[in-house]
Amino acid sequence: MDKTQRKTQVWHALVELYNQRGEPVGPTDIGLRLGFPYQSASSRVMAALKQLVQEGQVVRNERGKYAPCR
């Protein structure tokens, strides 16, 4: 899977979880939603999350959780 595909998957998982919960979501939850094992769930999505933050599509709060920009 290339970086663009991973970023798209992470974006969709984040939006889905955010809409369900109504609050920012942690990277582990996003990784678990994408089917990664708990031990590596966070690390498997961090590069994509950082890129989404840099692009202004996602914001990170002080607790290390992420929310889509609206």
Question: Could you walk me through the main structural features you see in this protein, from its secondary elements to its overall organization?
Answer:
This protein is mainly alpha-helical. It is built from three helices and two strands. A two-stranded antiparallel ribbon has the order 1-2. Helix 1 packs across helix 2.
Low-confidence stretches: none
Strand order of the largest sheet: 1-2
State the distance separating the first and last CA atoms. Answer: 27 Å
What percentage of amino acids are in beta strands?
A: 5-15%
- Oligomerization: single chain
Largest sheet: 2 strands, antiparallel
Helix content: 55-70%
* Beta-strand segment tally: 2
Number of helices: 3
Q: By helix and strand content, what is the structural category?
A: mainly alpha
Instruction: Report Rg.
Output: 11 Å
Secondary-structure element pattern, one letter each: HHHEE
The best one-word shape is: globular
- Rounded average pLDDT: 94
List the helices and strands and how they pair.
Blueprint: H1 3-21, H2 27-33, H3 38-54, E1 58-60, E2 66-68
Antiparallel strand pairs: 1-2
Helix pairs in contact: 1-2, 1-3, 2-3
